[in-house]
């Protein structure tokens, strides 16, 4: 890949829940320090993908059936979930999943448990989280359940950062948030990335995700159907119609022109179905 170091490499990954096949031979890469997004509607397999990478699929009754996941050149296949965190990959699960009755402070401490760092690394991680999200310092002693939805999302991101990850897996961080709060979360994702953490962001909010990411993949019914530079996907007629809600004919024509100007887009036609 032109000398770009790959943080994460997913190759031919298939996964399911008992008889339900949720992912079919998904391959993707997150270069070191990049933001990569996976777009897809409800049930496309986005959460399954992140759970397969973080090795938490078994907690949901699922399993990886084939394929490999490598991080920093090392295979994560077969590791326990806490070992994946120690290897530098932290997940922010769908729906935040903060511990509502625990204080904000204790939620953050829980995030540090899986990390590989010593006391001073954890103190530095907490300072970083408080700088990114001052509200989490202000509300440190309050039960997390009293936070707003947006603040709970900040807490969920902060908790994941406490382990000092080199790669952050984000599962629909904008879901259920008002546009202004979603934009704030997007700003902090950008800032976290600028500080050197790679990000794999799965989203239904394609507009937000395509602004943040350099590379994008479209997942449909468990398969990657389209991938390429985020700018090329944002310009593609199909993505605009299906994920960006563009219906205007002229805009669609413009987008079709732009798409032909972006030959870097790769498409998987119905070949494997
Ligand atoms: N815990 C589970 N048990 C059984 N099936 C599941 C479970 N979680 C997800 N699925 C199924 O797997 C497929 C992919 O789901 P999911 O990864 O949650 O999609 P997304 O996150 O894109 O909405 C769907 O068909 C969904 O119904
Ligand atoms: Mg999901």
UniProtKB/TrEMBL annotation:
<dbReference type="InterPro" id="IPR052156">
    <property type="entry name" value="BCAA_Transport_ATP-bd_LivF"/>
</dbReference>
<dbReference type="InterPro" id="IPR027417">
    <property type="entry name" value="P-loop_NTPase"/>
</dbReference>
<keyword id="KW-0813">Transport</keyword>
<dbReference type="InterPro" id="IPR003439">
    <property type="entry name" value="ABC_transporter-like_ATP-bd"/>
</dbReference>
<dbReference type="InterPro" id="IPR017871">
    <property type="entry name" value="ABC_transporter-like_CS"/>
</dbReference>
<keyword id="KW-0067">ATP-binding</keyword>
<dbReference type="GO" id="GO:0005524">
    <property type="term" value="F:ATP binding"/>
</dbReference>
<feature type="domain" description="ABC transporter">
    <location>
        <begin position="8"/>
        <end position="246"/>
    </location>
</feature>
<protein>
    <submittedName>
        <fullName>ABC transporter ATP-binding protein</fullName>
    </submittedName>
</protein>
<comment type="similarity">
    <text>Belongs to the ABC transporter superfamily.</text>
</comment>
<dbReference type="InterPro" id="IPR003593">
    <property type="entry name" value="AAA+_ATPase"/>
</dbReference>
<keyword id="KW-0029">Amino-acid transport</keyword>
<keyword id="KW-0547">Nucleotide-binding</keyword>
<dbReference type="Pfam" id="PF00005">
    <property type="entry name" value="ABC_tran"/>
</dbReference>
